[in-house]
Write a structure and sequence with these properties.
Structural class: alpha+beta
Number of helices: 10
Order of helices and strands: HHEHHEEHHEEEEHHEEEEEEHEH
Largest sheet: 4 strands, antiparallel
CATH topology of the largest domain: Glycosyltransferase
Length: about 350
């Protein structure tokens, strides 16, 4: 058994049990649900039977799989590595169904929704943003990177020996994804800026997701992941170069200077933080900036914009990434990249 280095020291029986559990949770659509901790998951006989019944219910109800929080792409990666390790064709077949799922869920405009198939109106638990094109938490970028690896027959997906036609489909899907990214870049006063977390799948307008996720410019994770992807393109077009340089210019302009995040224990004995003045501190960026004023804002579950992260409730303040120094690394990379383009 040739192991991926990540799994060294883990008993073979456990690795296979996890893979088999992942197989059991694959939906008929070819995808998976999110937020499952597979390394700890092994099903009993009773749970296997319950899962089989649930699969039938899902197949007839139209409930969609999703790509949020690494769902589907993470399972495909694990199964692909296990196929290389074990040669079990069931793992390869599951990955191939996953690829078909990712290709099938792409919109004609090149975007990917968070959930697919679209869940029926009135179905309990359907989020209003389920069908939006989703950059949030790198959902779309993660899918594109996976399809890019398949298209170019690169590890770990080279072990699949995908047909030329499937690789062409993956390459076309990736290219249409790049087109969607460029089309979604927000223009302000005629100038290209950055991106929002989610977009209307028909109009490509920035959209509202959860109560605290309002239409906005995103100054942290999503924009940075998009820029990293665009800068990874081997032969970027003039349009891509302009897109990247415009976004970096916006990020530089909207950095928060002379501020830092200070950690402390609050009066309730809980870990907390606040933003304090600190001359010369590393640059910070807010997660959200207002689409009109371009000022940073923070938002609790009441959906009201606040100017100070300390004004929103503790649960949302500490349970969400509101501020980051991450764009500094992307900007640094950009200046090396720009010398070649």
């Amino acid at each position: 058994m040739v192991r991926h280095e990540k799994y060294r020291g883990i008993p073979e029986q456990h690795l296979r049990a996890v893979a088999d559990t992942i197989l059991a949770y694959q939906f008929p659509s070819g995808g998976w649900s999110k937020n499952r901790h597979w390394e700890m998951s092994q099903l009993t006989a009773e749970e296997w039977a319950e899962r089989a019944a649930l699969r039938h219910d899902i197949a007839t109800s139209g409930v969609g799989s999703n790509i949020d929080n690494g769902a589907t792409t993470s399972e495909m990666l694990y199964l692909c590595r296990m196929y290389r390790t074990t040669g079990n064709e069931a793992y390869r077949d599951a990955v191939m169904r996953g690829i078909d799922f990712l290709l099938s869920m792409q919109y004609d405009n090149g975007g990917w929704p968070q959930f697919w198939p679209s869940r029926p109106a009135g179905y309990d638990g359907v989020e209003p943003y389920a069908d939006f094109i989703t950059f949030n938490d790198d959902a779309m970028v993660r899918v594109m990177r996976l399809l890019w690896l398949v298209a170019d027959d690169r590890a770990p997906y080279d072990v699949l020996h995908a047909s030329d036609s499937l690789r062409d489909r993956c390459r076309d899907a990736f290219n249409r994804g790049v087109r969607c990214i460029l089309d979604c870049q927000i223009r302000k006063n005629g100038e290209l800026t950055v991106w929002c977390q989610q977009y209307n799948q028909k109009t490509l307008a920035p959209e509202h997701a959860r109560a605290y996720e309002l239409p906005s410019f995103t100054g942290c994770g999503e924009t940075c992941s998009i820029l990293d992807l665009l800068m990874d393109l081997p032969d970027p077009s003039d349009e891509v170069v302009k897109s990247v340089s415009s976004a970096v210019k916006w990020l530089e302009k909207h950095a928060l200077r002379d501020l830092r995040v200070e950690r402390f224990v609050n009066d309730d004995g809980e870990r907390d933080y606040r933003v304090v003045k600190s001359a010369g501190a590393p640059l910070l960026w807010a997660r959200f900036y207002d689409l009109d004023s371009e000022l940073p804002f923070y938002c609790g579950r009441d959906g009201i914009k606040r100017a100070d992260v300390g004004e929103i409730e503790y649960e949302r303040r500490t349970g969400y990434g509101w501020l980051s120094t991450g764009p500094a690394d992307v900007i640094k990379r950009y200046y090396k990249w720009s010398r070649r383009h």
